[in-house]
Amino acid sequence: MAATQVVLTTGIFVLAIRLGTGGVSIIDALMITVAGAGVAGWLVADEPILATLCVVGADLIAAAMMVPKTHRDPHSETLSTFALASLGGALAAGAVGVLDVSLLLYPTYYCLVNGAIALFIAHRRRTLRR
Fold first, then answer.
1. Is residue 65 part of a domain?
2. CB of 114 closer than 8 Å to CB of 86
3. Is residue 20 domain-resident?
4. Domain for residue 15, yes or no?
5. By the 8 A CB rule, do 112 and 89 touch?
6. How far is it between the farthest Cα atoms of the chain?
7. How many domains does the chain have?
């Protein structure tokens, strides 16, 4: 699974560089830097909860970066992808056998952030239809 994710993410990154439009604003560069710091924190953190919080922070910034584009063009994102990712996070949290914050933090976050994005996409699509 990890290798598949690396290959697919790398492929999407390469396609985005070759076929993407626009550029990187100062705010985008700052957010990317902060997200990179979150990933670096994950790499060096000794504590599982701290490492997970660093990953959550980095991912939350990435999710925030896509909100303006999704607001402008909600059809540019696939609603089912975010809805199913939210369901996957809920199922992963439900599969945890014990109430342990270090085990529940990421799947719970993943469920909530993807669910929020799915709701945002659906709301924007309905708003634009009116």
1. yes
2. yes
3. no
4. no
5. yes
6. 51
7. 1
